[in-house]
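ENTRY TYPE: protein
WANTED: fold as tokens:
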Amino acid sequence: MFNQIRPERFFVLYLPCGFSWLFDALPQTSYLIAWLGSFFIFLITISGWVKPIPKDRSLSEQLMRPLFLTQLIFAGYMCCTTLFYYLDALGYENFHQMNRLFKPDPKKLMMIAECQRYYCLGHAAFITGTLLFMNYPVQKKYQLQNISLADFLLYVAIITVPVAILFTAIPGLNQFSAQFSTLSFIAGALALAFAIPIRKTPNIIISGVLFGFNFYKSVLSGYKEPIILSFLVLAIFLFPFYKRIVILVFVPLLFLVFAVLPTYNQVFRQNAWSGNLSAEDASKVALDAALSNSLEAKDSNWSFLVFRLSEIDMFVKYIQSTPKYTGFYGMKMIGQSFQSLIPRAFWPGKPNTEDLVMERAFNAGIAAKGMNVSAKPALIADAYLFEGEFGIFFILLLYGAVNQFIALKAESLFGGYVLGTALIYSGLFQIMWRGLSFEFLFNSVFWSYISMLLIAKLLYGTRILKIAD
């Protein structure tokens, strides 16, 4: 795993964070250095300058690996989306300065810059862990036999639907339903992407219906991530076959989704979650509002970009309270994470994990008990609450290493990139694209890993997988 490693190049990953600390007395300069630093990290890692890109596949055929998609989603969401919050603090709205006499709050700018430095540090640590353990090609343990890849992916997409439904009927095992629902979605998108180039009509129809059904569920869920991921995943899977079409069609489509989604989600939730309208009717009303281009829609979009696209607003509040008023949580978080591993089916009286995590929000004054809100800290904020700057470096380094280890293990067990990384890693471990609070992340990754091993055993026992030659 340590072949082709040049330590001095890993050191360069931390230069943006270091320079931003040198300018901590100038918050706007410090913020911009740290914010641009993440783009610098993207550039030198994805180009292969820090460590060479794996040569076992072409670049377009390995985009689902942690170096690419996981880094882009995780670090892009955490580190790059804060720009809108920063502009809002400077008095901008919809990218226009509302009042030229407006004077930003210097204390708030200092806090924003400090958070951005932590994000930059976390990004550097995450990709360090990823690159240290990135060692391709993988020694394959098993490989697929006697079945076409397109057919197998379609079978997985179909079979995992009833499996997901079955787990919803078993008290205390609902998290496995979420695992297999996501696996079915990824398998369906992959099946569609593999069926189109070979023009296998039955597969295209069935996988297309599955993809459409999953997208329809995403639209009626009231959450933005499933809708965005539906287009993003299909685009990535089709890209190796139709590069020009994907760029010309899916890139503008994703921009359109980002433009209308904030207003759509806000109006949908107001009508559907309150019980005023059915999900279908609320969806129609929300879509009309999103496409109206009204002043209300523009305000909703800007509010979404500032306060919901990134989580820096909560991170600022966590830093203000910790460790000044509330000490770092340290081993308490580790203990609660291990406790979360026990399925409720085996421990009916297990404390509610949501309540345990929300205690951190209550202690920071972000939310009050009894409020119907969710203010759980995201991973970098949780790493800070664990043990400050050291916690961010240590936890994110470990997070990157675990991400890469799981992806390598999946490719070894399932015969390579398509079934290993694109299907199993992306299907069972999608939570690692975004990262959550310790307890939820620890629980989900542990049991997803167990599911991965059991699926491999099942496929080997049924001779769908055979020992690699």
